[in-house]
Amino acid sequence: MVKLYGKDLTRHEAEALSGGLGHAAGVRSMVLDDGLERGIRMLEFRTGTGLRFTVLVDRAMDIADCEFAGQAIGWHSPSGFRHPGLHEYEGEGGLGWMRSFSGLMITCGLDHILFMYDAPADTYVYGPRQTASHSIHGRIGTIPAKLTGYGERWEGDRCFLWAEGVVSQGTVFGEHLELHRRIEAEVGTNDIRLHDRVVNRGFYKTPHMFCYHINVGHPVLEEGARYLAPVADVVWAAHADSYDRQGVGYRHLPGPQLDFHEQVWQHEMAADSAGEVPVALVNDRLGLGLMVTTRKDQFPCQYEWQNLQSGQYALGIEPATNHVLGNAAARERGEMTWLMHGDERRYDTTFAVLPDAAAIAGAEARIAAIAVQPDTDYPAPSGNHRPIGGRS
């Protein structure tokens, strides 16, 4: 059944109410046409519950806007949703990526994440290229996708909105990786389901690293918002040498700050019996939150990013394939994923809007049943970056 406007409807009943489902829900294509965004292809999804989100086809099919019942969830940064043709990957010493950094979700990878690094390029068998130069968080997030399809699909009396595309990251004498992305949202629900498949189309042994930079903004993020996660261990904090200087711990969020320096943690997350790791940011005052559920075997690591600077106010949930130690450490520790021709890795993630206090309570209970997070805002980092197994 499709749940619309408080009623459970069969497909026949839903179709009898209007000339098309689009009066209540649907996915449609449009093109942005002004300023830095001009020329970007975009898909708009509406599930009929008040959930609306947009997918930037020309920005790796990442999720830009996200709102529920008119309340924003996704983050808008000063950079805006910049057209990829304006992007300068190597600019500003590798920090040019920041000028295209905005939205609910930015994909990082496909062969590098985290800070800038010149990686050995010997596997590409090309003398003039001794190193592969990586800017922060990799190239994939500003590459346009080939849109292979979108629309609505009925399965009996259930209706699913969907889109698929392929993003290709390739060069001569270097990597040739593809991101195959499928996004789904069932009509009458508050969930966004993301299915990614990264494939090595090339014939060189190629490194693979992957991360989602999931950014929640105001009003979900405001003074009093809470970060909920099955934290088994606080592994690392970038600001550990001045841990409480800014007066912001990992659990409770303040309002926007002046002259705030970003804070980043890596948490070791526990998983439930199905191997899933749910993490949420919740606003009890509004009765609104967002929960992101990943798989521990796909994303063994997770970071928490706090950018609480006025005008840039955001909280980041970042599932990742590798420790925050970076590219060099992944190689040295034997934790880099190496893909041969035809090898692939899959990633399955659910974004769930928590629309009321009951949903928040349910999410909190689910998370606490997996692991009870530290009850202090400044838990001492253990430094224990657990070995990541199963890599090839």
UniProtKB/TrEMBL annotation:
Gene3D superfamilies reported in the protein's UniProt record: 2.70.98.10
Lineage: Bacteria, Pseudomonadati, Pseudomonadota, Alphaproteobacteria, Rhodobacterales
Organism for this UniProt entry: Arenibacterium halophilum
A matching Pfam family: DUF4432
Domain of life assignment: Bacteria
Protein name: DUF4432 family protein
